[in-house]
Specification:
By secondary structure, this protein is an all-alpha fold. 56% of the residues lie in helices and 0% in strands. It is rod-shaped, with a radius of gyration of 31 Å. 0% of the residues are buried.
Length: 93
């Protein structure tokens, strides 16, 4: 592209590519990694979500945190449940 003094638009026409983003992406790879970077297969989408499997240490930390938070909620709500759980005096037939 540079050696032939082509613009992005001219490069798109020459290689019959309809998206200027592809050319800009290739240019970025070339500038960052050199010509070897263009030889790397880069198909597929990059995962942006959480990892499929958490490490054992992280999983144990999350379980402990979950248990701590549940205990905190139970403690906060226990006065409410004590009031509503007491049997009401009802007339016996």
């Amino acid at each position: 592209m540079w050696s032939e003094h082509l613009s992005v638009r001219d490069t798109m026409r020459r290689f019959v590519i309809n998206d200027h983003g592809i050319i800009k992406h290739w240019e970025h790879i070339y500038l960052e990694e050199g010509p070897e970077g263009l030889a790397v297969e880069r198909r597929g989408s990059v995962s942006t979500g959480r990892p499929r499997k958490l490490s054992k240490e992280v999983e144990e930390d999350m379980i402990a945190e979950n248990q701590r938070l549940r205990a905190k909620v139970v403690t906060a709500l226990s006065p409410y449940y004590r009031r509503t759980a007491q049997p009401q005096d009802s007339p016996e037939p």
